[in-house]
Amino acid sequence: MQQLRQQQGSTGGGEGADQDAQRQREADQRTSLLQQILTPEAADRLGRIRLVKESRATDIENRLIMLARSGQLRAKVSEEQLKELLGAVAEQQEKEEQKIVVTRRGGFDDDDDLEDLLKDV
């Protein structure tokens, strides 16, 4: 019985290593593909974006990879093209983002009473 548990425990640890290796291979493939589709300046800009907001950089990378795989990219993406893509994504996120507007009603300002008292002094 103990041997079965030990064997199951050892295979369970192997699955974790396999998953880590799979993630590493996927990350390497992403990096390789991004090197193929980005100019060095654009890759540098994307790296700086990653330092500030990793989720935005990952989103842009996913979009670029999708465009490359669908054949919509004819040449390497320049820094200017990357800026345009960033602007388009920012506009889209602003539209999707819900804004809460708080409307305050006038006439309930207690400071007016204080100002009236100070004028009399």
UniProtKB/TrEMBL annotation:
Q: Basic and acidic residues bias: where?
A: 20-29
InterPro entries attached to this UniProt entry: PDCD5-like, PDCD5-like_sf
For this entry, the protein name equals: PDCD5-related protein
The UniProt GO MF terms for this protein read: DNA binding
Q: Which residues cross the membrane?
A: none
- Where are the residues of the annotated region Disordered? 1-35
Provide the family line.
Answer: Belongs to the PDCD5 family.
- Lineage of producing organism: Eukaryota, Fungi, Dikarya, Ascomycota, Pezizomycotina
Q: Which GO terms describe its cellular component?
A: cytosol; nucleus
